[in-house]
Amino acid sequence: MTSTHETTAPADLDPANPFAAPSALPYGLPDFSVIREEHYEPAILAGMAAHRAEVEAIATNPEPATVENTLVALERSGQLLGRAARAYFNQLPSDSTPGLEDIQERLAPLFSAHRDAINMDARLHERVRALADAAEAGDLDLEPDTAYLVEKLMTQFKRSGIALSPGDQDTLRELNARITSLEASFGRKLLAGANEASVLVTDEAELAGLSADAKAGARAAAAARGQDGWLLEMQLFTHQNVLASLQDAATRERVQSASMARGATGGENDTREVLLELARLRAHHAQLLGYEHHAAYTVADATAGTTAAVNEMLGRLAPAAVANARREAADLATVSGAPRRPEPVEGSDGVAAADWSFLNEAVRKERFNLDDAALRPYLELERVLHDGVFKAAGLLFGLSFVERPDLPGYHPDVRVFEVFDAVEPGEPGTGLGLFLADLYTRESKRGGAWMDSLVVQSTLLGEQPVVVNNLNIVKPPAGEPTLLVWDEVTTLFHEFGHALHGLLSDVRYPSQSGTSVPRDFVEYPSQVNEMWSWEPQILKSFAVHHVTGEPMPAEWVDTMLASRIWGEGFSTTEYLAAALLDQAWHQLTPDQVPTSVEDVLPFEAAALAAAGVDFASVPPRYRSTYFNHIFGGGYSAGYYSYIWSEVLDADTVQWYAENGGLTRENGEAFRRKLLARGGSQDPLVSFADLRGRAAEITPLLERRGLV
Ligand SMILES: [Zn+2]
Q1: Environment class of 660 (CB within 10 Å of its CB; exposed 0-12, middle 13-18, buried 19+)
Q2: Ligand 1 mean position to 528 CA, how many Å?
Q3: CA angle 231-237-238, nearest 5°?
Q4: Candidates 495, 523, 574, 604; catalytic one
Q5: How many angstroms does the Cα of residue 89 sit away from the middle of ligand 1?
Q6: pLDDT tens digits for range 155-194
Q7: pLDDT in tens, 104-139
Q8: I need a labelling partner for 590 at 20 to 30 A (CA). Which of 11, 203, 427, 626 fits?
Q9: End-to-end Cα, the chain, rounded Å
């Protein structure tokens, strides 16, 4: 017998710890009014112990495996750990303290050991395999979500190396440890190398064009290192933002060369040796697990499935993107007062990479003269939220939102909204979940914007979703309205798209809830939601002057729309070049990986040429030697994901357009066929169910002006 509710917390967790029992607040919102930093670690440790004990009971159950005593029991296990860890990992990036950071340092190896202990449990594997075999033989009838769960679990076991001999398992563990340490080393070298690559300017005249703020920042950066002058520091990507404003061509050239040389300058911060070893060890790791190379290993667990599918998609986009970048280069070359290079750079169509964004900025100012300062009074946060983001969700999905100031957030800036479903005018509707909006920047919050879940929806556990959106909007002085720039409006819609994926989830198993989908799919619903910021009905509703109530002038809207595809040739090309490099390095078998550091840049050049993206005016967004996403951690062989999701997104935008746009009926279809399904079936099946066919690439090409 499995109990419906988890048993009481383990004896070694203080019952006064707020995580010891499920929260009594609505929707299981963690009670942040009593949670303190010191509650997290003991709750997580006790949660790990409890989870292990629950898993042990499943693994040693003398009864033959059944769906109930194995799969359902696994899905029910780990609830204490889940609620404590979710609250902790939500707070860590959003409102961090040195104490919370220390906890992470202590717990990171324990989390990885905890996962391994479960994924490498041979007894558990046997029980799941027995169910998979019985289903395969036709002796056991599994419901579709359960069948998909079994399939995913078997994949997870395979990828953990459970089927390997003890000797190979040891090798695998050694490889994992070495890979992790090489990734950390790549990151460290990159950081030190970026400092080393900073460009020191001692003659102020060479900084002409730079804003006063940027200059002051550069001055302070130099002073911080005891240098006299102005220090132009490196951002991670190739194309440095200062290039758009620096009027002096020689300074631009210095910045561009320093940026592109990172990681290949010899000496301590050279990353070439590390990246070669990483490429080789990852390939070895993949082969040990039965995959041809690391890219095959990575995409097998994504919606792409095979590297052939990834190559095909990148291969179709690349020529169109480069052709468009070449058209843009021709356009830039005609800018009046454009820097004329005495010796055009080979293969650059007359526009040097260092000059691109300076010329681009000139064109942008001339053709799309949009002033952020003039736009902002029309983009006031409360209106954007209520008359934009929430309104679109109401019209599409029948949702309504009521602020609950009585419910505690984890920081005073956090606002809690109760979400109601299918509300009729004048009716209260059914409570669906909670949406927490943590929109302001602060020192304790990391940069960027993201969505998180505090409670994941599951009918098995009877839980409704509690989701969080984090943004980094600068807080105005007390009593003043928060006025946004257009990018922040888009980000708000984007993150809310993730929130909807969590809120509208309607699945049985918690592991399949909402955003529990592969990373090449997870950005898709959020990208789709961005479209509503441009929808005339929605835009008209929120883009209203916060004092006068006047709508935003129509010609501004037209200009904004027109400016959207300007520059897409450049940005698509630099992105695709990086994505192709990622694939090139990770589609090698161990013995195909070059052995000498001298071969790294030639390999890169050959890979770009083979893919047709060797256009010198537009270098890759990241070169191999400073491609932190893929060599410093998580995104190896996965950098293609952004555009993969965007193919689905653009095709869906077209589906809406073909079916009448912003209607309740379309929203309902998108909700039921796609958002609600979460990870309970192959996400591409959900997509085809909605679209009536597999995804096509043309809508993306059209959107980016690449046709
Ligand atoms: Zn996103």
Answers
A1: exposed
A2: 10
A3: 80
A4: 495
A5: 17
A6: 999 999 999 999 999 999 899 889 989 998 998 899 889 8
A7: 889 988 998 899 889 999 999 999 999 999 999 999
A8: 626
A9: 61
pLDDT single digits (tens) 59-108: 999 999 999 999 999 999 999 999 999 999 999 999 999 999 999 889 98
Task: State whether residue 481 is helix, strand or coil.
Answer: coil
The residues near 93 (Cβ < 8 Å, ≥ 6 apart) are 445, 446, 450, 470
How many A from CA of 453 to the centre of ligand 1? 14
Q: Put the strands of the sheet holding 430-440 in their side by side order.
A: 400-403, 415-421, 430-440, 466-473, 450-455
Note if 63 is an active site residue.
Answer: no
Helix (H) or strand (E) holding 641: helix 641-658
Closest C-alpha among 238, 249, 145 to residue 194:
238
Taking a C-beta distance cutoff of 8 angstroms, is the pair 484, 381 a contact? Answer: yes
Separation of 466 CA from ligand 1 center, angstroms? 18
Main-chain dihedrals φ then ψ at residue 468, nearest 5 degrees: -130, 140
Beta strand spans in 57-117 (E)? none
Residues whose CB is under 5 A from ligand 1 (ion)?
523, 526
Q: Where are the alpha helices (DSSP H) in 413-535?
A: 486-503, 519-530
- The predicted structure's pLDDT at residue 347: 59
Determine the residue type at 258: A
Instruction: Determine the distance separating the centroid of ligand 1 and the alpha carbon of 13, expressed in angstroms.
Output: 36
